[in-house]
Amino acid sequence: MTNRDIDLIDELRRLPAETAWMEFKRDNAEPNGIGKRCSALSNAARFESQDCAYMLWGIDDATHEVVGTSFEPDAEKISGQPLSLWLANCLQPSLAFEFRSVAHPNGRVVLLEVPAATGSPVSFNNIAYIRIGSATPKLADYPERHQKLIERMRPYRWEQDTAMRYVTGDDVLRRLDYSQYFRLTDQPLPDNRAGIFDKLAAERAIVSDVGGRWSITNLGAILLANNLDEFPIHIARKAVRFVAYAGSTRAQPVTHRLDMKKGYAVGFETLIESINGLLPRNEHIGSALRESHPLFPELAIRELVANALIHQDMTIAGAGPQIELFDQRLEIGNPGQPLIKPERMVDLPPRSRNEALASLMRRMNICEEQGSGLDKVIQLVEVFQLPAPWLRAEESSMQVILYGPRKFAEMSPDERVRACYFHAVLKALRGDRMKNASLCARFGIDPKNAAMATAVINKTLDAGLIRHADPEHLRAGYVPIWA
């Protein structure tokens, strides 16, 4: 990091003057002053749309020359506490600031890097400060600036964080599969490096760093990496894992395992091909035709895998999407509780923690347009007369289970109720209503045995998932409870 810090210091020195988010000092290291400035600089950085703010000791604030400093932050103690610990306890909310001692060629410099405020203004001893010129007044004394700062606060976006800093242009081109990016977005490959970097920067896959170098963002790494293992562990552990078993439980031997090293976008087709290549075949009887198909529809697998990648909680450490293939089911899981209840995922617009990632994957035609994917999965499941998928939310994960073909008599009561509910949802989305006859067709029940479908409808009514479309006319059909 030393070379980057030297370039960063030199870039800050080239600024014409101190800014609201950057301040030079010689040796003045009074603790309360540092605490106030941490608050003020952090808030000012967000106000000025900067990711970080800086204090530098050992720089003349008039000439910006490196003069060196005797300040030793690691040696400072306040009330018996190390300076960094004391500051951390005095700043609210917690702030991941960092002191770094830099051996600049012209003298020793101490660099304090302060992240921009997120969520709420940063306070020191319960008072928030702001920088105005070289002054550090209380934020409360400037209500218009306070309001503007609040407006500029934004929720944390994992995609915008840095995966790797201070990399050369050659390293960017080596670590990211840029040619696949242009192919997937249907753009011509530029004939020069500057054009490639301009496009990647416009996507926020990379951002300009100091010293003419680049930072690769989490978004760029997770989607375009040639090898995720070349990135820090918070990226590498997000790789997709695919495991196939010889039987119906995890106790059975593993027949195939794939730990994807490529980024999600550039490795997606290989992943889907690997899954489909291992699927057993199933005979599907359609309109007077008998055809052989994979056990699960490919479009359903594509959409569900893409959803697992897009909607996971990237902030959960040490966990990534996992796909497991058993002899009669496919389980697709991702870390993080869903933002929408599973029973409403088909009809409500999706909500993603990773909007930039979702948007780019849609432009790459990896998944369906927003809000049109899961209903197609349910529809395909019906066409193939498979049991309804199980959308299961757990404490820290989301899982979708696709089941192989089973006759109505082989389905459990819960599976029948789920299928009935999703059938009613699909009908409602088309402006129609579920009826006994349509549910018979869904399950492949002979109309002579319509009482079997009626029994499922009654259980689904008892479960509170559907209701009569018109209580005054019970033959009018059924709609989801929320319709």
Automatic annotation (TrEMBL):
Organism superkingdom: Bacteria
ATP-binding listed as a keyword: yes
Record-annotated Schlafen AlbA-2 domain positions: 18-136
Alphabetic keyword roster: ATP-binding, Nucleotide-binding
GO terms of molecular function: ATP binding
Gene3D superfamilies: 3.30.565.60, Schlafen, AAA domain
Keyword Protein biosynthesis: no
UniProt xrefs under Pfam families: HATPase_c_4, SLFN_AlbA_2
InterPro entries, A to Z: RecG_C_sf, Schlafen_AlbA_2_dom, Schlafen_AlbA_2_dom_sf
Protein name: ATP-binding protein
